[in-house]
Every structure is written in C-alpha cells, then in structure tokens.
Amino acid sequence: MIEITPIKTLDGKIKAPPSKSYTHRALFLGLLSEGKTKIENPLICTDTLATLNAVRAFGAKADWNFVESSGEVKPAKINAFESGTTARLAIGISALADGESVIDGKESLRKRPMEPLLKALSDLGVKTKSNGFLPVRVFGGKIREDYVRVDGSISSQFITALLFLGAKVGLSVEVLNPVSKPYLEITLRTLKWANVKVERDDGIFHVYQGIKAEHFSIPGDYSSASFFLVAGAIFGKVRVEGLDKDDVQADKVIVELLREFGANVKVGKDYVEVERGELVGQEVDCRDFPDLFPVLAVLGAYSEGRTVLRAKHLRYKESDRIRAMALNLAKMGAKVKELDDGLIISKSELRGTVLNPQNDHRIAMALTIAALGARGKSVILNERCVEKSYPNFFGDLRGLVSQ
Questions:
Q1: 98 marked ligand binding residue
Q2: Most buried by CB count within 10 Å: which residue of 52, 55, 142, 376?
Q3: What residue stretches are annotated with the Enolpyruvate transferase domain (predicted)?
Q4: Poorest-pLDDT segment among 150-159, 165-174, 353-362
C-alpha cells in the first residue's frame, strides 16, 4: 500500500514513458521478420515482459532492444501473465507454428473473452481447444483459407492478431463491429514500419505476405501521460515531454477532451502542457479510447455539473472498470451513478480513504490523481499493480510534486 497526501497546487514537468502498445507490436513483428530488428526506447513493464518472454518461447533470440529471428515460429507454452495483448497476439501467431501451443495467464486474464479470435482461426482451418477463455490450445501449421471475418466488438486485439498473421501468409480480414479503432491505426503504422503492405477496402484489410522489420523507435505513451495531464487540469500546470503530436495513438484524444472540459492546453511538436481552467462536465463516449475512462471519471469529479462516460466493453478489461471506479469514487464521497454502459458523475468534495484498485493499473493511477485533491490522506492498496504499464508512476509523481 502507499499513502497519498493531498496537494494544494502542481507546477512541473515529466517525460512520458514509452508506449506499451508500440512495444508489444515491435517485439512480435521482430519475431515474424527474418534477421535482426532493433527496438529503440521500449517500455519495460510486466505486460511487455510477457511479450518478450513469448517471443523467446516462440524461438527468437530477444532482449529489450533487439529481436533476432529466423522468421519461423516454434510451438510454445506461453504465460501471458495479465497481458491481454500478449495473449491474443500469441494465440494468432501460434497458428503459424507446426504443432501444439498453449497460451495461458493469470486468473484475471482467464476471465477475458477470446472467442471471436478462436472462431476466426477455426474459419481459417486452424484447430483450437478452449472454452472461449484462457487457457487456449492452438494446433497450428495448417492455415487453409486466405479470407476471414472477425467480430471486433469486444477488442481490436483480435484484429491485430489476424493482421500480424497475414504478414506471414497473406490474408484478407473483414472486420465486423470494430471498437477501439485508433488502436488499429497503431497496428497499421507498425506494419508499415515493418515493410508489410496493407490495403483497406471498406472494412476489409488486405494484408500481403512479406515482412522485413529492421528498426522501431517507440514513441511516448499518451495513455500513461493522461494521468498527469489531467492532474495539471485540476491542480495547476503540468508539461509532459516526449509526446509526438502527429502520433496515431487512441489516447492522444485526451488533448482535445481536456480542452472541451475547459482546461488550458498547449501542444508543441514533442510536448503537451495543461493548465488549470474552469472545468465543466461533458458527455464522452469512450468506446475508441477505453483506457482513458478511469482518469476521465476523476476529471468529472472535479468538473462543474455532471459528466457522463460510456464504454460498455470496459467490463471486460483487467477489472470491471466501470464498477471499480464507481465503488472507489463513491467511497471518497463522490456523487456517482453506475450505468450498464458507463458512469454519471457530478462535481464532488472528495475525502481521503482506503482505496482498492482491484489489481488494475489504470484504476490505481486514476485514484491516485483523485486522492491528490481529497480532504485528508488516502491509501492505495496493492500499488504495485502499476508495474503492469507504468512502473515509475509513483516515482514520477513524487518528482512532479516536489518541483
């Protein structure tokens, strides 16, 4: 546990940690590409460690800054820990291995659905064994089709897995009901960096066989930066450096959202600076940027009027994020109402208390920001869960508060 002491104001700058989404993709594309792939500025956290271990298990020689691969994939036993990206991409990639692979993870990951990807693999002629959740057995090496449909209503990770598969075998992927669409843009960008040709045709992605991944430079992460940008909007002024203004990350939308809420936002080529303004609640559909939901709920508690947030598929993340935020903010005294597909939250006087993030890194970081303005100290239980995506979160927070 960690104790959070309230602050009166905030004025400082930090450097954004590297992007988790890009790091996952760079490691897996390095596995699929013959030769050596260099990776600059990777994010080192428990989620990306799961992917690094998977890449090694599949037969590549790899470390944080490089992957050296024959381009072939060997059957493997994969422990994805709590990383949904690792699990889903590994399930897709294991279809290339000539033999049986097993993908499993921790209990929380075993609750996250895999069925749309398993159905797509079955339609391609790949046999799998599962109850729709982890563990999943994949009997690879026999892809018989070059066209497949996938339901993208739960996660865009299923689509990414199939697009990566297409880089090795050639595949047309028709996407039904896509969510988190900007995450697909990250996938398409990294495929382009790996010299994979992809054409779009009205919801169908035609991926041409052939990949040569030589170098990835991982940009700063808007998801992780969002916690401190929101802190700037509430408590004073924060500049986050290392953010590419031209990036395609879903969570770059935090810049526009903060403006809509009333914060003063300044964007440079490689930084975003947010200063406190007259904050007013908004209605936000988080379908395409679900990772912002927890911190936007906190922003709502500090904004005049009411904020309505919607993102039904958040109930399938590391925790039920809708329920987790509703319970914890209510415990702090917030006026919050849980909906089937989101939250309604009104401006509230928050009080310090013991907060349980339910082992969810984004819930823990969001509640920490909420606690900075509460009346009295708060305690965050199991604060080490932030190591899943942002191991130095509390270190960066301490540095920011002391500036």
A1: no
A2: 55
A3: 5-397
A4: 150-159
